[in-house]
């Protein structure tokens, strides 16, 4: 099993993003996804900037995949997606069926992201025939669900989000702009103010959600590091870390080293700000203690 | 323009037909559809009765199979497709790739409508489903602005159906895990959004606490009008605000009566009324108003204006008695 770094889902300043990926380049993380997957209104980095970063990471020996938008609504977003799929150098992570369509049209392999609903083997086999080389499991599925899906060893790879805030929903509405009494069309990219999203708590001070523009995430951080040994055994090929800070690079890097001795992985105790329920067939927010 | 109404049971189906629906949609009494509430939906025998009744009146009936099959149990969804074909359903409403594939291969003459749960919002996605499974129609998620609907209608390879009235889902449908995050039950896997068994109300002094699987999603006054409790319509706190706010959306319903001319001009083929979980009285009331509105529009398109008695009748059956245009209106976004 390998470690991957998912795309940065937050809107960081351009220089911060560049610093982030320069540090990634010096790590041992073998597989890196990058690109804007949440909102087309974020313009800190342009497509050309992402391509440059992708080339830099490729030269550092990484496998690079360009992540695409999860919600494609306007003709201009679709045109931009087309340009991304046709970049000629890197494969894409399709987060909407539109990207699957374009990749298939160009006979290009692709990764199917977690926001495309793949709940059973027959559906995955169809996408495999269209060029899917790897699939990222929808976040709400469990270990037992996945083990049935891949009972017969597939010819595509399997990736599971193992660490990070869970992407739970996408909307037409920008919740961050709304919170600041702005409309989406005049949002001032106000999501830049929240490097890990805006925390929403219940009226009993229980952290619940993280508002990240049009995306809603979990307030709790998913942590399945304790399940890495069993994931590797059941045939998961890639364990994804979804980054939310610079520190995530070192954490993911340590996991790469730890996986060199999968039989003696360290113990990863969970704290109250974390969750792992989905993997055990429970509510996502739950903490399951094995 | 077709008026497509919900039927949670035979009484609702009859009410919809009586009040002027052109077509009805319904689901089986199991987890093959995303409105799997106790006491709702149709056994195969009732489905047959529903089909005969609907066809006798010259109307159409669509079977909703919009959940994603569980591994090892796929045959139950395939059997539902076989049943739909046998009972001459006028269309199947499907989201899952493997089900689209099965239906397309076995029953090429059975029209396929791409469910809103497939989250198809753009030309690329629609082209994919059209070219691969020959879908006839798509039900658009409630995330597009009116302009985006118009733009898509100009180039779409399939007919477009939109939500005209009912509960307002504010997320791209089929891709919302808020319910499963809190309760473990997902509309995608055959549960429903915010299942009733996880809802608990509790009175505390002058407040009513609404809990979903013990998570406090709202605190309201005892007399406040509340909608059905869902995570996206709760009141929460942020780091920079002292009072709880509806951070995502307040309890409101979608109502597009005022958009009727624009939807018609855009070439929308079907207007969907949400609410298979609602009562026959709701179905009758909403269907009646929309029938009148559509007929009024078709008779004199240029003079159409939404009438206040229609709006009042609809507001009465709306969540929180407040309605919105939702994402159709760009400023809502």
Question: Could you name the key traits of this structure?
Answer:
heterodimer; A: 290 residues; alpha/beta; TIM Barrel; B: 333 residues; 8-stranded parallel beta barrel; 3-stranded antiparallel sheet; 10 helices; 33% helix
Can you describe this structure?
The complex is a heterodimer of chains A (290) and B (333). Chain A is of the alpha/beta class. Chain A has one domain: TIM Barrel (Alpha-Beta Barrel). Helices cover 29% and strands 22% of the residues of chain A. Chain A has nine helices and twelve strands. Chain A has helices spanning 14-25, 47-59, 75-85, 97-105, 121-129, 143-149, 175-179, 228-234, 247-258; strands at residues 2-5, 31-34, 63-67, 91-94, 110-112, 132-136, 157-170, 198-201, 207-212, 215-223, 238-241, 274-275. Chain A has an eight-stranded parallel barrel with strand order 1-2-3-4-5-6-7-11, surrounded by four helices. The relative contact order of chain A is 0.16. Chain B is of the alpha/beta class and 333 residues long. Chain B has two domains: 2-168 and 252-332, TIM Barrel (Alpha-Beta Barrel), CATH 3.20.20; 178-245, no CATH class. Chain B has helices at 10-19, 44-56, 74-86, 97-106, 123-133, 146-155, 178-183, 260-266, 280-299, 308-316; strands at 2-6, 23-27, 60-65, 91-94, 112-114, 137-139, 159-167, 199-204, 207-212, 215-221, 236-238, 241-245, 253-255, 270-273, 323-324. The longest helix of chain B is centred in the C-terminal third of the chain and has 20 residues, at 280-299. Chain B is globular, with a radius of gyration of 20 Å. The model of chain B has no long low-confidence stretch (mean pLDDT 94). Classes of the chains: A alpha/beta (290), B alpha/beta (333). At the A-B interface, helix 3, helix 4, helix 5, helix 6 and strand 7 of A face helix 4, helix 5, helix 6, helix 7 and strand 10 of B. Strand 8 (198-201) of chain A pairs antiparallel with strand 11 (236-238) of chain B.
């Amino acid at each position: 099993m390998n470690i991957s770094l998912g795309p940065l889902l937050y809107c960081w300043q351009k220089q911060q993003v560049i610093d982030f990926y320069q540090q990634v380049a010096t790590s041992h993380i073998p597989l890196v996804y990058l690109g804007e997957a949440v909102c087309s209104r974020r313009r800190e980095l342009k497509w050309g900037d992402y391509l440059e970063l992708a080339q830099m990471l490729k030269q550092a020996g990484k496998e690079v995949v360009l992540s695409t938008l999860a919600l494609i609504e306007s003709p201009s977003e679709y045109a931009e997606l087309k340009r991304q799929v046709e970049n000629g150098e890197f494969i894409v992570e399709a987060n909407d069926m539109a990207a699957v369509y374009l990749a298939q049209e160009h006979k290009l392999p692709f990764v199917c992201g977690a926001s495309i609903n793949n709940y059973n083997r027959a559906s995955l086999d169809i996408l495999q025939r269209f060029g899917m080389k790897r699939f990222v499991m929808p976040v709400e599925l469990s270990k037992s669900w996945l083990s049935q899906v891949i009972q017969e060893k597939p010819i595509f790879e399997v990736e599971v989000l193992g660490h990070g805030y869970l992407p739970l929903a996408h909307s037409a509405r920008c919740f961050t702009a709304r919170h600041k009494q702005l409309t989406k069309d005049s949002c001032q990219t106000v999501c830049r103010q929240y490097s890990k999203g805006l925390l929403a708590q219940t009226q009993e001070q229980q952290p619940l959600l993280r508002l990240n523009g049009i995306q809603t995430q979990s307030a709790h951080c998913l942590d399945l590091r304790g399940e890495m040994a069993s994931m590797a055994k059941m045939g998961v090929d890639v364990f994804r870390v979804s980054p939310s800070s610079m520190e995530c690079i070192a954490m993911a890097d340590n996991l790469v080293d730890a996986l060199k001795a999968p039989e003696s992985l360290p113990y990863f105790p969970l704290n109250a700000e974390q969750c792992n329920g989905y993997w055990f067939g429970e509510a996502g927010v739950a903490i399951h203690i094995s | 323009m077709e008026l497509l109404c919900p039927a949670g049971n035979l009484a609702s189906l009859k009410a919809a037909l009586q009040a002027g629906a052109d077509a009805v949609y319904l689901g089986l009494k199991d987890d093959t559809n995303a409105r799997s509430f106790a006491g709702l939906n149709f056994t195969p025998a009732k489905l047959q009765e529903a089909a005969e009744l609907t066809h006798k009146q010259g109307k159409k009936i669509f079977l909703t199979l919009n959940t994603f099959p569980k591994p090892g149990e796929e045959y139950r969804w395939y059997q539902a497709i076989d049943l739909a074909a046998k009972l001459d359903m006028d269309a199947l409403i499907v989201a899952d790739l493997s089900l689209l594939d099965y239906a397309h291969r076995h029953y090429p003459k059975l029209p396929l409508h791409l469910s809103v749960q497939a989250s198809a919002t753009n030309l690329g996605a629609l082209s994919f489903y059209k070219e691969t499974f020959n879908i006839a129609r798509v039900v658009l998620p409630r995330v597009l602005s009116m302009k985006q609907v118009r733009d898509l209608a100009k180039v779409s390879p399939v007919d477009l159906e939109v939500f005209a009235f009912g509960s307002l889902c504010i997320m791209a449908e089929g891709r919302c895990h808020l319910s499963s995050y809190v309760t473990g039950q997902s509309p995608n896997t055959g549960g429903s959004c915010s299942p009733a068994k996880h809802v608990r109300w509790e009175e505390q002094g002058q407040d009513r606490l609404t809990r979903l699987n013990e998570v406090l999603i709202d605190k309201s006054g005892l007399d406040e009008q509340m909608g059905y409790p869902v995570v996206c319509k709760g009141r929460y706190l942020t780091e920079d605000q002292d009072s709880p706010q509806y951070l995502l959306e307040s309890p409101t319903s979608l109502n597009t009566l005022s958009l009727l001319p624009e939807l018609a001009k855009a070439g929308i083929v079907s207007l969907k009324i949400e609410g298979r979980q609602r009562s026959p009285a709701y179905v009758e009331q909403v269907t009646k108003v929309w029938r009148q509105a559509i007929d009024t529009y078709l008779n004199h398109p240029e003079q159409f204006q939404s009438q206040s008695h229609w709006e009042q009748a609809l507001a009465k059956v709306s969540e929180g008695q407040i309605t919105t245009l939702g994402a159709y209106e760009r400023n809502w976004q």
